Amino acid sequence: MENNWQKEIILDGNLVRLEPLQISHKKELIEAAKDGELWKLWYTSVPNEETTENFIKTALLNKEKGEQIPFVIIDKKSNKVIGTTRFMNMEPENFRLEIGHTWYAKSFQKTGVNTECKYLLLQYTFEKMNCIAVEFRTHWHNLASRNAILRLGAKQDGILRNHSISKNGVLRDTVVFSIINSEWKTVKFGLEHKMEKTY
Asked: On the CB side of 65, how many CA atoms lie within 13 Å of its CA?
């Protein structure tokens, strides 16, 4: 049986293509983050020019450990890297994981890119990895992210109070959402309907 929890994955849509993250993507990710100066949003963890290399190396190390599968998001029209996302907190023994560390250059936000990106990821997790649950987590203060997750069809599981401490000492409440396998058929239909309007 093919191990879809470890293989190199390329996910191809109409707007975007998701390819395995490599150290060679450093310059393009820096440029993508500059579009909107995303690292300045205090409730996100988008890397800046100085931290991007470590961001990539950490992701690749976690990939080697079998804990994550990181991607770059490529705009198919321009063939430019416009962001990143990954499978993380992977638990193949429990058939569940989290989709996280997702961010897009500002000019590609609210364009249909997120909907297609999440569709490709969710389709793979439920139809190839046979997941029983896929989780999303975000900062309590990141209202845009929370609303985007809800629009996907995910349900809020709860809030982890004082879940972590940021580098500047600020406490983070983490909002947890999920989609379970019995909901995928309906969620998939809803996402496909949204994408039809975009195309």
From this structure: 13
- How many angstroms separate the first and last alpha carbons of the chain? 36
Pairing of strands 171-180, 80-91: unpaired
Pairing of strands 133-139, 96-104: parallel
Domain tally, the chain = 1
Strand-pair partners of 135: 98, 178
Regarding pTM above 0.85, the answer is yes
CA angle at residue 114 from 109 to 119, to 5 degrees? 170
The pLDDT tens digits of the residues spanning 6-48 come to: 778 999 999 999 999 999 999 999 999 898 677 766 566 788 8
- H helix runs in the chain, sequence order: 26-34, 52-64, 113-127, 143-152, 184-198
What is d(CA 104, CA 39) in angstroms, rounded to the nearest whole number? Answer: 11
CATH number of domain containing 145 = 3.40.630.30
